[in-house]
Design goal:
single chain, about 900 residues, alpha+beta, 13-stranded mixed sheet, six-stranded mixed β-barrel, 28 helices, 26 strands, elongated
């Protein structure tokens, strides 16, 4: 207080502290005497100087410095002192920065994914004015379904809350041009589609209302990428025709560069309605989007659509009862049903990692505060306020946290780049915003803000503890601290918290990895090994009727069977392990449906003879298809076990009759095993199989089982298809094992990221245990020397130290088990039921965590056991 404030006073105090520390190492008693001598000398000098300044001030006008200037100068000095304190302990500061950088980098990467994939996946003009309209069932508010043509047209007529209302339908097309035939991603869109999302063709024109009529609809707009790739960017292409699905389509426009909405589309055709489709309310296959009218809000749209839905339900109860019309923002409506839970799981895991890292940082800061307790006691003894000390220590922790931000952003950038580059291109098209994953100003601001909050939360308690030293003990001879007190209890509590938080992350990562293993290598209900799959879609132009499709399938399978090494071949409309599905409403003979408006539906498969042998699906009872199950023969079907058990429980289903839609009744001739069509939505669902000859379709997958590597016969398989139709594109030529691997890509990503979180949690928890036990040994060196001088053995010292680590770990693991069971529901939801809680796995991971913690505590224990009692008794 005698020195006052300012740079000079702070400099004198810094020198005083350093000199006192140097004297204390040689003799604490002499250091204390020296300190008081210096204090008296400096106080006298300050008093004399003050008297001289007061005499001079009588004749010189004095203007006080503004309070803000004094505060800023003080903060500036404290920042400089904090930087000096950080640089004085470079190893500790580096550990703090790296620990925080790992946790902040993980959170930054997840925030970037949430920002790009959920919050801002689309960049159209005024995207907040674009909405998606959907039907949902009464029993599931979030299960969005597509819309029938008749309902869409009625919505368009009756709703005035939208400036534009448009619809689109999936249309992947067979394009035949200057190169090999190619399957391109596309959609049929109504004339208002591009205006609704605020996009105009870069070349050419948009669709017109007249082109929504069948007969005038053969018009297409190409993406900029497809135009460049297939047609070398020829501007004269606009106005010419190209062959698509066996028919001639006029190219009327080229889309802007990088425009590929929706879902990576490369071609857009005119969505046309005839009288029959315009009146169709049962088939729901249209996705509807709209642009809000000026002055209208999302709530206005929801209210008006609710009224229109009630009106249509009253007018058409047979088809519309049980459905609600809902309005979403474009980002909400297009969000994949599985993405939100997975990102939530990742975000929760990243927060857990940050909490563990924060506990580690708090532990290190407490240890650092214990080392500086004499310094703090001296400062308090000569008049420094506790608030000043707390503030300076918070500034230190804030500087360390902010110093970790560049490292954290580097970690996030590397992680995002690896994620972005590892995703297959054909999957990226289904994840809007994936290519936008990057480090930007928003991510920098988020990471810096999170670092500041972390510094405040985890630096406050250590700062308060450091500002409350016991002056008498800190300044007396020896100044040796004890292992008791609130500081030690807090450090132990932090280790327990780390263990409690680490175990749920380990369990989550273990469940994720186990789920991936099960879905990739566990029973599928079929045998994916040795099977090659090739996807084919027969265009209406080249194959306009069932007879043409039937002949193509027969010739295709016959050619496939002639390939050397092929054991059996078949074709099916939907092979296993693909993202698409086909379902049909059914009716069981003699069992009328109690709710005609909502008849039961089953997975629907159309296949040629040999499909069950090709896929290795067992026939439980009855028989499979034969060549005798042809056109004109008795309609037959094979059903899965789950279908038979649901509709003919405790009965023999052979000979029973079942009908699809309004078609003929079919006789059940066999029951096959259940298979996992898709881990995401279709696991062991009731499935009905029909002979291809009795219900030919235009889309199929050719499957061949080989005795060797199925990928090696891919060139021969392509030639076999060209022999049937040289202009027929073939795509997704992959083994079933590869299809299964790609289909579980989302699950594998979830498992990989959860494994990273689990590894980080384990590492940080081990470091926390080691740090506490190392501090424990350092602080109890004198006590350990006394114990050993009184007869304690090295084993006793090891048991004492490791036992303490074991007790802390056991308490933390016990709490972690409770958190693991509570977090189990989030894990199951995040992995969409692919993972289920496993007591054995949880117990095994708890044992791993305990052993790792004991190993971390054993290293300081061995060091303690090697202490020389004579040296320990002399330690002060």
């Amino acid at each position: 207080m005698a020195l006052g404030h300012g740079p000079r006073a702070e400099g004198i105090l810094g020198d005083l502290f350093e000199e006192h520390a140097a004297h204390a190492q040689r003799s604490p008693a002499r250091a204390a005497m020296w300190y008081w001598m210096q204090a008296v000398r400096l106080s006298g000098r300050a008093l004399a100087t003050g008297m001289v300044h007061r005499r001079r001030a009588r004749d010189v006008p004095h203007l006080p410095a503004p309070r803000g200037d004094v505060f800023m100068r003080t903060i500036g000095l404290e920042i400089r002192h904090a930087c000096r304190a950080i640089l004085q302990r470079p190893a500790l500061s580096a550990v703090l920065i790296l620990t925080l950088a790992l946790a902040l980098g993980a959170n930054a990467a997840i925030f970037s994914m949430i920002d790009a994939l959920v919050l801002r996946p689309y960049t159209m003009p005024d995207v907040d004015r674009i909405v998606l309209l959907s039907h949902t069932r009464d029993d599931s508010i979030d299960r969005r379904e597509t819309v029938s043509p008749a309902d869409f047209l009625d919505w368009k007529k009756q709703a005035d809350v939208f400036e534009r209302l448009a619809a689109y339908e999936w249309w992947d097309a067979n394009l035949v041009g200057r190169d090999e035939p190619e399957r391109v991603a596309g959609f049929f869109v109504s004339a208002d589609f591009l205006p609704a999302i605020g996009v105009q063709p870069a070349l050419g024109r948009n669709f017109t209302k007249e082109e929504e009529t069948v007969g005038a609809h053969r018009r297409v707009i190409l993406s900029h990428g497809l135009w460049q790739r297939r047609f070398a960017g020829d501007p004269a292409l606009v106005g010419r025709t190209v062959q698509i699905d066996g028919a001639q389509y006029e190219v009327i426009g080229i889309a802007p560069k990088n425009f590929d909405f929706p879902l990576g589309a490369e071609i857009w055709g005119a969505l046309a309605f005839n009288a029959e489709t315009a009146a169709n309310r049962r088939s729901r296959y249209l996705t509807v989007i709209g642009r809000l009218a000026p002055g209208r809000t999302l709530e206005d749209a929801k209210a008006q659509m609710a009224v229109i839905n009630e009106r249509l339900t009253a007018d058409h109860p047979d088809t519309n009862r049980g459905f609600n019309a809902r309005v979403y923002t474009l980002a909400q409506g297009m969000l994949d049903v599985g993405l939100g839970p997975i990102l939530s799981l990742w975000q929760a895991s990243a927060i857990f990692v940050l909490l563990i890292a924060g506990a580690n940082v708090a532990n290190l800061l407490l240890a650092r505060g214990a080392e500086r307790q004499r310094e703090m006691a001296v400062r308090l003894a000569i008049g420094a306020s506790r608030i000043r000390i707390v503030r300076e220590l918070l500034i230190e922790s804030t500087i360390v946290s902010l110093a970790s931000v560049p490292v954290a952003l580097a970690i996030a950038w590397v992680s995002l780049d690896a994620l972005r580059n590892s995703m297959p291109a054909k999957v990226v098209r289904f994840v809007a915003g994936w290519n936008e994953l990057n480090v930007d100003l928003r991510l920098f601001a988020f990471t810096a803000a999170l670092a500041f909050v972390t510094a405040m939360v985890f630096g406050l308690v250590p700062a308060i503890q450091s500002a409350r030293p016991r002056l008498s003990e800190s300044l007396k001879d020896g100044g040796r601290s004890t292992t008791g007190g609130s500081r030690v209890r807090l450090r132990r509590a932090l280790v327990i918290a780390e263990m409690a938080l680490a175990l749920p992350l380990l369990v989550a990562s273990g469940l994720s990895a186990l789920s991936v293993h099960r879905f990739l290598n566990g029973p599928q209900g079929y045998n994916p090994d040795g099977v090659l799959s090739m996807s084919i879609v027969l265009g209406d132009g080249a194959y306009p009727d069932e007879g043409a499709r039937r002949r193509f399938a027969q010739d295709l399978v016959a050619n496939m069977r002639e390939i050397p090494g092929v054991q059996v071949a078949a074709a099916v409309n939907i092979p296993p392990a693909v993202g698409s599905n086909s379902s049909r409403q059914i009716e069981i003979d003699g069992r009328p449906n109690p709710d005609p408006a909502n008849p039961p539906s089953v997975a629907y498969r159309v296949a040629t003879p040999g499909i069950f042998d090709t896929l290795g699906i067992p026939i439980r009872t009855g028989r499979s298809f034969t060549d005798a199950d042809r056109e004109g023969a008795q309609p037959v079907a094979v059903v899965s076990e789950s279908l038979a058990k649901r509709y003919w429980p405790n009965e023999d289903p052979i000979g029973r009759r079942i009908k699809v839609g309004t078609g003929q009744y079919m006789t059940v001739i066999g029951v096959c095993g259940d298979i996992i069509h898709d881990w995401f939505i279709s696991r062991n669902v009731p499935t009905l199989y029909r002979p291809f000859a009795q219900a030919p379709v235009g889309y199929m997958a050719a499957l061949v089982r080989t005795s060797g590597d199925p990928a090696s016969i891919a060139p021969d398989a392509r030639r076999a298809i060209r022999a049937v139709d040289p202009a027929q594109p073939v795509f997704d030529v992959l083994t079933l094992r590869t299809l299964l691997y790609e289909r579980t890509l989302g699950l594998r990503y979830a498992a990989a990221i959860m494994s990273i979180f689990g590894t980080l949690a384990l590492m940080l928890a081990i470091v926390g245990v080691y740090g506490v036990m190392a501090y424990f040994v350092t602080q109890r060196t004198h006590e350990i020397g006394v114990r050993m001088a009184l007869g304690a053995t090295a084993r006793d010292v090891v048991r004492l130290t490791v036992g303490q680590a074991g007790r802390l770990t056991a308490i933390g693991v016990g709490l972690g088990l409770l958190l693991s069971f509570a977090l189990g529901r989030l894990i199951e939801a995040g992995l969409l039921g692919a993972a289920t809680s496993d007591v054995r796995l949880t117990a095994a991971l708890a044992a791993v965590l305990i052993l790792a913690a004991l190993a971390a505590g054993y290293i300081p224990a061995r060091r303690a056991a090697a202490i020389d009692p004579v040296v320990a008794l002399r330690a002060e």
